[in-house]
Write a structure and sequence with these properties.
Radius of gyration: 23 Å
Shape: elongated
Order of helices and strands: HHHHHH
Number of domains: 2
Largest sheet: none
Helix content: 55-70%
Distance between the termini: 38 Å
């Protein structure tokens, strides 16, 4: 099994594991007073978020090119995930008159999902990073001028991703323009 396959399997397991952790941590609510149950539920929700953030960072840290901007946006996603959880908590506790511990448990389920979705956008590889990564392997990538799909090694000049058809000259010109643009940025 390759490292990537192992990472994907572990990534798929993060939410089921966090759900079990959320249920385990929230189970103490049954034995607590009302005020204690609110604190326990909120603490459990934050504990699950800390677990998922740590798990996800350990799993993918070597796959992400950590720039100062990406680090700042990653911290912003933590804050936004907590804000989303607070919004869910407030909505269900106030509007639906749901008990606060149960609303906090729902927030505990939504914050990790918000975190993972946010990292998908923040950690996405930029076209410049992709070109640099491909050049480290000693190949000049030929990318589709329409969608950016890597067409290196294809036997035809039609992009399998978007279906656009090109001539070899069009691909060469587009590739040269893209490299010039990446060098300027």
């Amino acid at each position: 099994m390759t490292r990537l396959v192992a990472r994907i399997i572990l990534a798929v397991l993060v939410l089921p594991i966090s759900n079990v952790l959320q249920m385990f941590l929230s189970s103490a609510v049954a034995f607590a007073s009302n005020q204690q149950s609110v604190l326990i539920s909120t603490g459990a929700a934050l504990g699950v978020l800390v677990f998922v953030v740590t798990y996800w960072l350990l799993l993918w840290r070597s796959s992400v090119q950590w720039t100062p901007s990406r680090i700042r946006r990653t911290w912003l996603i933590v804050v936004l995930a907590m804000a989303f959880g607070a919004l869910v908590l407030g909505f269900f506790a106030a509007i639906s008159s749901m008990p606060v511990p149960f609303a906090a448990t729902l927030a505990g389920y939504t914050m990790p999902v918000a975190w993972i979705l946010g990292t998908v956008f923040v950690w996405r590889e930029t076209p410049k990073e992709r070109m640099e990564r491909l050049k480290t392997y000693g190949t000049d990538a030929v990318c589709c001028p329409m969608c950016g799909y890597n067409m290196t090694g294809l036997k035809e000049t039609r992009c399998p991703e978007c279906g656009a058809q090109f001539t070899v000259d069009e691909l060469y010109t587009a590739q040269h323009e893209r490299e010039q643009e990446l060098q300027r940025s």
